[in-house]
Design a protein that fits this description.
Length: 241
């Protein structure tokens, strides 16, 4: 189900698109099947890395257009994003738009204890590659968890219920669990992925926090969501965190 405030299809976005890495069949990903998850992660990552640069650039623009037209995103004044790697859709057009609108932008920085924080990001921020080979700020001001309005999260896989498959490191899961413990309401969680990364269904674990929306090169998907307050409490209590 899509939200009534889903923006119209951006002009020029209906070009030739690559098919999903598993053909036209959407797979179901059951919980607890670790080998299947590992294999599917590798397959989906190979798929997105193989997308030509021209199509990647078009996808980045399409994602920015969709978010710019979405009223819920327009209300954000403090945004967390990411710097693209491994074939992820580049959110820089969204970041540039946020700067133009006076929105504060933060990007991830890994911590020595295995956690992750977000550092305020500027056009002249100095970056360095972290231990995963992803660019991050050398230093800067950490974001205040209470002030985050919206989080853009890169996805490896997703389904239309808002369930997500990440890289497997658990960085976002742990950060969101900490956020659940420290604030009454979660920020707006938006997953970013190529349309070909969609799965039919992903079973979730106790620590998984569904996203509120997924934006792809083809659509903005806003799942119907039951009351998230119970889910937030479950994540905050999860032993994994």
């Amino acid at each position: 189900m899509t939200s009534p405030d889903t923006p119209p299809e951006p002009k020029g976005s209906r070009g030739e698109l690559r098919t999903a890495p598993v053909g036209d069949v959407l797979l179901t990903l059951p919980a607890g099947c670790r080998q299947l998850r590992r294999d599917l992660r590798l397959q989906l990552r190979r798929f997105r890395r193989a997308i030509p640069q021209r199509q990647q650039a078009a996808a980045a623009v399409s994602v920015a257009q969709r978010l710019a037209a979405w009223p819920r995103f327009q209300r954000a004044r403090c945004l967390t994003a990411y710097l693209a790697a491994d074939g992820e859709i580049d959110p820089f057009p969204v970041i540039a738009l946020a700067w133009q609108r006076g929105v504060r932008v933060h990007i991830p920085k890994l911590l020595a204890d295995g956690g992750m924080t977000f550092i305020e990001y500027y056009p002249d921020s100095r970056l360095v590659q972290n231990r995963l080979g992803i660019a991050e700020p050398v230093t800067g001001r950490r974001c205040n968890l209470a002030q985050i309005d919206c989080m853009l999260m890169p996805l490896v896989g997703f389904d239309r219920a808002g369930h997500r498959l990440g890289m497997g490191g658990g960085y976002y899961d742990r950060f969101l669990a900490r956020t659940c413990q420290r604030r009454a309401a979660m920020p707006l969680l938006v997953g970013v992925a190529h349309a070909g990364q969609e799965l039919a269904h992903i079973d979730i674990a106790a620590w998984d926090v569904p996203v509120d929306a997924i934006v792809t090169d083809r659509a903005l998907i806003v799942p119907g969501r039951p009351d998230r307050s119970n889910r937030r409490r479950e994540v905050a209590r999860s032993g994994r965190h």
